[in-house]
Amino acid sequence: MNTSLDKRKVAKSFSRAASTYEEVAVVQQAVLTEHLDRLSFAKIEPKVILDLGSGTGTGAQKLSSHYKKSRVIALDIAQGMLQEHRRKLPRFRNKTDLICADLDNLPLENNSIDLVFSNLAVQWSNDLHQVIKELQRVLRTGGLLSFTTVGPDTLRELRDAWNSIGADDHVHDFHDMHEIGDALISNGFGAPVLDVDRYTLTYPDVKSMLSDLKRLGSTNASSERSRGMMGREMIDNLYEAFEKQRQVGKLLLTYEIVYGHAWIPAEDTRPQDGSTVAHFPVSEIKRRP
């Protein structure tokens, strides 16, 4: 990302959105379902699972149900999200621990996790290499990282609208699949496999689109953002710019989703076995800048 994130703002936005998040998390729930389906093919029996960026706990619940012998650590930066999660937990025989922390600085011991599951959270790191180093640190040898994150085409319609009125700092920049693959390899992960899917939401108007993003907690958290309220003129200009993109009576909003997994290889793994090569779908190779 070109600018750093204000983590206090991130935590505050998601905490405020916790009670409405699941009502509007259409793409997030669809990605979670697909992510869990892909994970089911991995041959792993984890004793300890880290759900990184656990949100309101839907993913952690499903992980706990599938891996019945596992302990699940649900970690999120937003206290409000964890409070929503806590309401769902059983009073007895609960095998889930809730931790409020930043994914860039995990309060976990080295080599303590067998599976890291992260659904649409890595993009909230200020440093891609730092968060991957942290995940490499806490994973045991043979451990698996399974994640999704958003790619650079995410919210491109909104970014284009802001850019057209000279306000280019309202939508975050996101890493592409190839940057993530390179970062995984350079930080000790073996044979990462990554691919991309896209989702498009339609809205009747700009107001409902911005309302949904706010209810998701996906607000501008750049440390360089303007602290003042947007004036009426800027809001009107944004609406007008977005209206020019209307297609067949609808406004579109794109989400580019990167799916990936990678393992912690044994210490004697050799480059010749392919563990230091990232795998991408052929259709995406030509898109690399």
Structural class: alpha/beta
CATH topology: Rossmann fold
**Low-confidence runs:** 285-289
Percentage of residues in helical conformation: 25-40%
**What is the distance, rounded to the nearest whole angstrom, between the alpha carbons of the first and last residues?**
16 Å
Radius of gyration, whole Å: 19 Å
CATH architecture: 3-Layer(aba) Sandwich
Could you name the CATH class?
Alpha Beta
Largest sheet data: 7 strands, mixed
Determine the CATH superfamily: Vaccinia Virus protein VP39
Q: Give the domain tally.
A: 1
Q: How many separate helices?
A: 11
Mean residue pLDDT: 89
Quaternary status: single chain
Describe the 3D structure.
This protein is 36% helix and 21% strand. Strand 4, helix 6 and strand 5 (139-150) form a beta-alpha-beta unit. The protein has a single domain (7-154, 172-200, 255-282), classed as Rossmann fold (3-Layer(aba) Sandwich), CATH 3.40.50. The chain has eleven helices and seven strands. Mean pLDDT is 89; it is low at 285-289. With 289 residues, it is of the alpha/beta class. The protein has a seven-stranded mixed sheet, with helices on both faces.
